[in-house]
Amino acid sequence: MSKICVIGTGYVGLVTGTCFADLGNEVHCLDIDHQRIEKLKQGIMPIYEPGLEQLVSQNVKAGRLIFTTNYEEALESAEFAFIAVGTPSGVDGEADLQYVRAAAEKIADLVDHPIIVVNKSTVPVGTGDWVADIIRKRRAGKPLDFDVVSNPEFLREGSAINDFMYPDRIVLGSVNREAASKVAQLYLSLRCPIMITDLRTAEMIKYASNAFLATKISFINEMANICEELGADVRQVAQGMGMDKRIGHAFLDAGLGWGGSCFPKDVKALAHMAVLHGTSPQLLQAVMDINRNQRRRVVLRLRKALGSLDEKVIGVLGLSFKPNTDDIREAPALEVIHLLQVEGAIVKAYDPQAMEAARTMLPKVHLCSNPYEVADGADALVLATEWNEFKQLDFERIAGLMRNKLIMDGRNLWDPERLRQYGFTYYGIGRPSLNGSDQSGCP
Ligand SMILES: NC(=O)C1=CN([C@@H]2O[C@H](COP(=O)(O)OP(=O)(O)OC[C@H]3O[C@@H](n4cnc5c(N)ncnc54)[C@H](O)[C@@H]3O)[C@@H](O)[C@H]2O)C=CC1
Ligand SMILES: O=C(O)[C@H]1O[C@H](OP(=O)(O)OP(=O)(O)OC[C@H]2O[C@@H](n3ccc(=O)[nH]c3=O)[C@H](O)[C@@H]2O)[C@H](O)[C@@H](O)[C@@H]1O
């Protein structure tokens, strides 16, 4: 059993801390946000993540998981200090490291025993060395015995606990292999491959992984757009491609594109790093452009179908950036809504979990309490997030409620044939449209 301090109780900090506690360690989860810690102490989760509340409660009861705002208490005799604070986009797309710096400074100021500082936040290549420098400089008069290890996190929101407990790999980077091996011990019971490398390589693995996944999605979205013009079905194209083991099925779902708190900021930060160091990240630029365009295409198609969007009522189903989370940071729905509103549309929306976040982020959207209220009087319905709840809607009822039976299925969730039977005009992403593309041309 080790004593671990986790700095930051966002998605990553909270899941990391809870899972390490569940693996038998004593974990002190620390945040500067007093309200957040107060709620956590009362068992109220600051995020919606399946299974988290129960796992937190079990480990708090077992005395292995402690929430605090007190740095001294959390760091006292800790063998490991995990930095899991946010690294949001700065003005030029660079990662803003102010929270990482603040955490590093606290460690330098308060620790007097040997400690391993583990960086779990996604940080630019070179940040591990920078953190070590900050600590060394602040402790110039009274050197601290410490090491910095990079340990990027690969969990996904919505399946975070499972991803943490059953990882494909653990990546550890350090100048000191012994320090990396000590961190590796924390993960041994997970029985997964552990790769130990140098600091910068570990940091780069994280960015390259996220950028590759985003590239896969933008690639299939580009294929979808071509499919639409040529009358092919991108879902089957993806299926056929994915059967090739070298390609694989994952991350080939065409749709409104990738959003969330990580892909957008990480692809931007990687491109920024590349430009800063004199390379020209053309592929990354294209990946971002295609993603932005996916949202615009939907609005364009609605405008074409409805003539103009001015004063049209558009219903949006799903606001979170993907199902099983209440996170709406950089959600595709937000951009679609913004574009619709710019063209004068009146937007109604519903999400199974993200309504609280939506109330503050989307003040001009008429928020509804269920999908049928969204459909009532709508000129078109846009599916932005493929929540399970939306799979089996009563389309007969929806057809009766809408002013105009137009459906834009931004996640290819529904069966076009079934919807057409209810009299809907259906548009998917990269699927042959009965009403849309001209398929008469020669190959
Ligand atoms: N959200 C996700 O699914 C994943 C995120 N990551 C990376 O992990 C890092 C954290 O991401 P999230 O958990 O989403 O962040 P978040 O922004 O949701 O939460 C960060 C937390 O850190 C706290 N904090 C900020 N400065 C602090 C300080 N000096 N001391 C103590 N607490 C402090 C904030 O109050 C906040 O509660 C980011 O670098 C992100 O890119 C990596 C993998 C998955
Ligand atoms: O660094 C991070 O924060 C995390 O970012 C992503 O995880 P996450 O953002 O939680 O969600 P994903 O499941 O990757 O989905 C991201 C976006 O891509 C979209 N997506 C995903 C898959 C797909 O086939 N098509 C598609 O449009 C989703 O709708 C969503 O908007 C990565 O998958 C994690 O490995 C990583 O740890």
Salient structural properties:
single chain; 443 residues; alpha/beta; Rossmann fold; 2 domains; 8-stranded mixed β-sheet; 6-stranded parallel β-sheet; 17 helices; 14 strands; elongated; disordered C terminus; binds 1,4-dihydronicotinamide adenine dinucleotide; binds uridine-5'-diphosphate-glucuronic acid
Task: Please describe what this structure looks like.
This protein is elongated. It has helices at 11-22, 34-41, 52-61, 71-75, 98-110, 127-138, 160-165, 177-187, 199-230, 234-242, 263-276, 282-306, 332-342, 355-361, 371-375, 395-401, 416-421; strands at residues 3-7, 26-30, 65-68, 80-83, 115-119, 146-150, 170-174, 194-197, 313-317, 346-350, 366-367, 380-383, 406-409, 425-427. Helix 9 crosses helix 11 (263-276). With 443 residues, the protein is α/β, with parallel strands linked by helices. The protein contains 17 helices and 14 strands. The strands form 2 sheets. Strands 3-2-1-4-5-6-7-8 form an 8-stranded mixed β-sheet, with helices on both faces. It has 2 domains: 3-197, 3-Layer(aba) Sandwich (Rossmann fold); 212-427, NAD(P)-binding Rossmann-like Domain (Rossmann fold), CATH 3.40.50. Uridine-5'-diphosphate-glucuronic acid is lined by residues 122, 153-157, 210, 213, 217, 251-253, 255, 257-260, 262-263, 321-322.
